[in-house]
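ok so I'm stuck.
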Amino acid sequence: MTDNKTLFEFKDIHVEVEGKEIVSGVSLSIAPGEVHAIMGPNGSGKSSLSNALMGHPSYTITKGRASLDGKDILPMAADERSRAGLYLAFQYPLAIPGVTVANFMRAALQSHRGKDADMSDFRKLFKAEMKALNIDLSFATRYLNDGFSGGEKKRIEILQMSMLNPKMALLDETDSGLDIDALKVVSEGINRFQNNEKGLLLVTHYQRLLNYVKPDQVHIMMHGKLVKTGGPELALKLEELGYDWVEEELKAGAGA
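replied:
not stuck anymore, here's the structure
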């Protein structure tokens, strides 16, 4: 972290999906250089929060505010939020038959830079980032995520993040479906991306990703709310004990 400036902040965010509230008043502030992790069981609202902040049309923010680098992002469409410097790596990346990985990356980068921007460095940048992520160059001409394994899809997500170089990255269960070797490569890509000017929010079920990408703070999300915050040791406790003890604490607090 470089200073006390806030890079990415959201306050009292409420999210609905098909008229049902999934996220119920979540607030978080991330400074430049910080890595935060949100952990929680299935159905806790983690992915809904990430998708809503990115502007996914299926997730409606009914209350709250969110800003990136001091700019209100909620009035922005998803592509505008992306150009403003927000990135989301999807839990389940979609296949796009007919669009090659290289053409997709070029189009995404061109959109960020502007239609008249110089793209002469694209090929060199693209090859360098593919090499760093141990992605065979043959993938450049394959259709995006079409027939890719889970690990290959996640590497392509990190490749896109590296190419676009956002200010703030939301990684939604990037570790799911990865074997240990793929997890190490993807984690190296994440760590290479992160620096003192950027922010990172990891959404995950498991502690294993946090063995490689060290968080400054860990937050537990349950029932649509952040219910507990701590340091990296909180993730280790979850790995050892699961989420039952958190549920018991919540029930004890409600009954007090």
